[in-house]
Design brief:
alpha/beta, 14 helices, six-stranded mixed beta sheet, disordered C terminus, binds flavin-adenine dinucleotide
């Protein structure tokens, strides 16, 4: 059998794989890009693009007279157009050979590709990049027929809005789809085994989202699990802390309980690469696996869960392969995240529970300012939203930030830059903000920090040395602090005054 040789073989044409394939081929490297399904991977086909289009299109209807059929058709058209464009691009990029088929390692630098018609071919590469992504984790519910199960892989194929969707899970995908389906006119119930929605964010985020959900008539069943489904009556029975409960007229169950990495059938055992089926392929911060010349990026790795992280990892691999003499940094980049719920939620840096385990509680100040108390929020009649920042005492070094509100996903970059570059709350205090803007809340947080720090500067110095030393001492001994009950990690004060014009 003939074996073709390439400079780099990329497996998977999703966000991660495309970044490397385009990046290297534009630098003149001969690249083979292998994809078993559609170009664009999850993001273009069944993830970010259709979900954000649905959110946007459905919100325009805002529950009034939703033409769900038309909205869903727009979602598919926009998704298809983008996929066609990306497919055209891979087919017409110089030095890039696109191969449709399923790749499986047969040696560390050799793959066998099986085409749709069953034919196989072998390819070898100087370097290999694994970017096979992830798929939805599934759940079995007694009596639930497969045609009533939705995941992100078939949700956007619905021809019309479901009558009543039970969404299992309460992470970002669950929340985004809850609000979008509600806007589309569906009744939505959330069934989550957690005690609060979006439990990786601060509690204040969960509380805000809970309010927003219930205001829209969305029932949330906490600490609950789905048990059985009755196909005759369309009843989903769930187990709750107070006993069984019945959700009636459920026509679909959307499962959003996590992701499973596409690791199992790609022949990793022939590579020597170290991996854990639960967390993915072990890599350094430049995607290098434990075997030289084999890289892994995107959802298949433990550190990436988003398109922007897949993209950054891809760019780092391009650098590592194409310009190996450029210096590399051992640290992971700082990844912000954004959830396009109502309101939007964006986080960057350490979250309160991580801070509570890493730092002495008296070394950190957490401050929050409600967006509705800014003049911009007031003029817009905002009901929800806030900026919350955790920073070290005395130095003002920002450890983590959360923004909840309109365009939080845009505003969070402010803090991504601040944390990455060590910009302190003193600098944000001196910055001039246009008036009136929601980012005025950032200034308010910085104002408050300075107001609480400068008048008692001596005490701040003493406490910083005392609690900083204790923190350092624990860290040197590899010990963490006991994370307090989560409410204790919430901000000490919630400020309610309105930003003045002065
Ligand atoms: C509903 C939803 C909404 C999302 N929204 C956002 C968002 O708003 N912002 C954000 O940043 N992220 C979002 N994400 C996450 C984002 O989609 C993923 O993190 C990203 O797509 C991962 O890219 P990847 O290249 O690692 O994997 P994928 O996009 O999954 O690509 C992997 C590709 O590899 C192919 N493949 C697998 N095995 C083989 C094989 N053996 N041979 C050949 N090809 C193979 C697959 O077919 C696939 O095309 C969302 C995800 C979902 C599910």
């Amino acid at each position: 059998m003939e074996t073709a040789h390439f400079s780099t073989i990329v497996i998977g044409a999703g966000s991660a794989g495309l970044t490397v394939a385009f990046g290297l081929s534009q630098l003149g490297k001969h690249v083979a890009l292998i994809e078993s399904d559609a170009v664009g991977g999850d993001c273009t086909n069944v993830g970010c693009v259709p979900s954000k289009t649905l959110i946007h299109e459905a919100s325009k209807r805002n529950g009034h007279d939703p033409d769900a059929v038309a909205v869903l058709a727009v979602v598919r058209r926009k998704r298809d157009d983008l996929r066609d464009e990306e497919t055209h691009q891979v087919a017409h990029t110089e030095h890039l050979t696109f191969i449709h088929g399923k790749a499986r390692f047969v040696g560390p630098k050799q793959v066998q590709v099986t085409g749709d018609d069953g034919t196989t071919r072998h390819l070898t590469g100087d370097t290999m990049v694994i970017a096979t992504g992830s798929r939805p984790a599934l759940l079995s519910i007694d009596g639930l027929p497969t045609h009533r199960v939705l995941t992100n892989e078939n949700l956007f194929e619905l021809p019309y809005a479901p009558a009543h969707v039970a969404i299992v899970g309460s992470g970002p995908i669950a929340l985004e789809m809850t609000f979008a389906l509600r806007d589309l006119g569906s009744r939505v119930s959330i069934v989550t085994r957690d005690g609060r929605v979006f439990n990786k964010s601060p509690e204040s985020v969960s509380a805000t989202l809970h309010d927003s959900l219930t205001t829209r008539g969305i029932n949330v069943y906490y600490r609950a699990t789905p048990k059985t489904y009755d196909e005759v009556s369309h009843t989903l029975t769930i187990e709750t802390p107070t006993g069984p409960d019945e959700l009636e007229d459920v026509d679909y169950v959307l499962v959003t309980i996590g992701r499973t990495r596409n690791i199992d059938d790609i022949g990793l055992e022939h590579t020597g690469v170290r991996y854990d089926p639960a967390t993915g392929i072990e890599v350094d911060s430049y995607g290098q696996t434990t075997i030289s010349g084999i890289f892994a990026i995107g959802d298949i790795t433990p550190t990436s869960h988003w398109t922007h992280s897949a993209n950054v990892q891809g760019r780092r691999v391009v650098q590592r392969i194409a310009v190996p003499w450029l210096p590399v940094f051992s640290n992971e980049p700082l990844y912000p995240n954004a959830t396009f719920s109502v309101p939007e939620v964006a986080n960057v840096g350490l979250m309160p529970e991580q801070i509570a385990r890493t730092y002495h509680p008296k070394l950190v100040k957490t401050l929050r300012f409600d967006l509705s108390k800014t003049d911009k929020g007031y003029t817009e009649g905002l009901q929800h939203g806030f900026v919350q920042v955790s920073a070290l005492r005395l130095t003002g070094r920002i450890l983590g930030a959360t923004i909840v509100g309109p365009r939080a996903s845009e505003m969070i970059s402010f803090f991504t830059l601040a944390i990455s570059k060590g910009v302190s709350l003193y600098t944000l205090f001196r910055l001039v903000y246009p008036y009136p803007t929601l980012s005025g809340a950032i200034q308010k947080v910085a104002d408050q920090y300075v107001r609480e720090t400068l008048p008692t500067f001596h005490k701040e110095v003493v406490d910083f040395v005392r609690y900083g030393t204790e923190t350092l001492w624990r860290r040197l001994r590899g010990r963490t602090f006991d994370a307090p009950a989560s409410s204790a990690t919430e901000p000490a004060r919630v400020h309610t005054e309105r930003i003045g014009v002065a």
